Amino acid sequence: MTISSLFRFMFKKAGAIAALALLITACSPSYNWREVDVADGHARAAFPDRVTTDTRDLKLDTHTLRFTLASATVGEAVFAVGSAPLPPDIAKDPAARQALGMALMHSLYANMQAPPPNEWPPYGQDIEVQGKAMGKPGWLRARVWVTDTMLIEAVAAGTVESLPAERAQEFLRSVVIKP
Length: 179
Fold this sequence. Notes:
30% of the residues lie in helices and 39% in strands. The chain has helices at residues 3-24, 88-91, 94-111, 165-174, and strands at 34-38, 43-47, 52-60, 63-74, 77-85, 127-133, 136-146, 150-158, 176-177. It is α+β, with helices and mostly antiparallel strands and 179 residues long. It starts with a helix and ends with a strand. Helix 1 (3-24) packs across helix 3. Strand 3 (52-60) and strand 4 (63-74) form a beta hairpin.
């Protein structure tokens, strides 16, 4: 399973939830922020709605990791923190950790069918990608962290209409990586 298949799962799930929400109410999405520990307790984030989790094997670079995605949806926007514990051999090897972090950043662009940048931001800095999600124009804002023991990403994704930039930024600012 690739990282993009996890995001397809998120967007399909978000679509079904959004359709149900539109049937129930015809008002604009509301945000009900709540703080949650995620990434096996290595991070804390404020999500705009109830959080669900999904864990799957993920092929990233040449490794298969057990990747857990904690996510919440508001309308068609998805707010998620994904994480995977690093295998001991990778945790001990700074070059291997760096390669996994870069592979995760590359996957953000692949998910949105967008070309990667010439220069990559440092870990923990904002990444913004404009492209397509599930065949529709969309965008995402994300951050990636590689610690000594974990690979962690935070992503807010949606369309221009469904994901206001200030909500994406609010979510990303809330993510705190614990020492």
